[in-house]
Write a structure and sequence with these properties.
17% helix; 4-stranded antiparallel β-sheet; globular; 6-stranded antiparallel β-barrel; 37% strand; 4 helices; Elongation Factor Tu (Ef-tu), domain 3; 245 residues; alpha+beta
């Protein structure tokens, strides 16, 4: 059964009501709908809690997709406290918003980084304090301060960040939209989500993002590493840890 991924429509949702649809063999909890982002594209799955109708609390330490098409999400309980959930039981799903919002800021900053450095992306990771992208760059000579300056200009511009959907066929007709070489957008469900930073960037992405670049805050390039003959790893970090909105 497909999970209604509410975070795709609104990354700012912090909680929702849901119904348990079942448990996996590993004890992961399946819901009919969720605000928990499932680990994908270098962004970790959300942490948080499930509140039961009887007043119990189950801490969730992560969420993952169960299928290649990314339609089913499983919630991993850190501990159940003896609570046994059954299919059909109502729960309240609540995420760790401070952690999520920091990752939203960093994920959006990394999209801007890929616009500043228009090279194929071979890998990446989204953290709540730091993030990175790996680029396939033929020549070295990247300047940390110049990249940081260009990022600051884009962030200060307050560009709108918005999502829309296109069909699999439309994506296949526009292959240049895909920047990532290591992670391809899931094709097979019939549609693909695009994230547009107006005037700056447009690419397929299922991750969570802020609504405007000026929410990102101050970031800087902290390190540029040579990982291979043509591979450069560029690390970003918040100048000061961002707090929840």
């Amino acid at each position: 059964m497909s999970t209604d991924c509410l975070f795709h429509g609104d990354s700012y949702l912090k909680e929702c009501s849901a119904t348990v649809t079942g448990l996996t063999d590993a004890g992961e909890i399946m819901l009919d709908r969720t605000v928990f982002y499932a680990a994908s594209g270098g962004q970790p799955g959300d942490c948080g809690m499930l509140l039961t109708g009887s007043g119990g609390t189950i801490r969730i330490e992560g969420a993952n997709y169960l299928d290649r098409e990314k339609t089913e999400i499983a919630h991993l309980p850190a501990e159940s406290g003896g609570i046994v959930l059954r299919a059909g039981e109502p729960v309240r799903a609540t995420i760790d918003w401070g952690l999520r919002y920091a990752r939203m800021r960093m994920h959006t900053a990394l999209h801007l980084l890929s616009a500043v450095l228009p090279f194929p992306v071979t890998g990446g990771a989204v953290g709540d304090r730091e993030g990175r992208l790996d680029f396939d760059i033929p020549e070295a000579g990247l300047d940390k301060e110049e990249i940081t300056r260009r990022l600051a200009e884009m962030i200060a511009a307050g560009a709108e960040v918005r999502a829309r959907w296109i069909t699999d066929a439309e994506l296949e007709a526009q292959p240049t939209l895909v920047k990532t070489m290591s992670v391809k957008p899931p094709i097979g469900s019939g549609r693909v989500r695009l994230i547009e930073i107006v005037g700056c960037d447009l690419q397929p992405c299922g991750g969570t993002h802020v609504r405007s670049t000026n929410e990102i805050g101050d970031v800087r390039v902290t390190q540029i590493e040579k990982k291979g003959r043509q591979n450069r790893r560029v690390r970003l970090a918040f100048v000061s840890p961002p707090g929840p909105s």
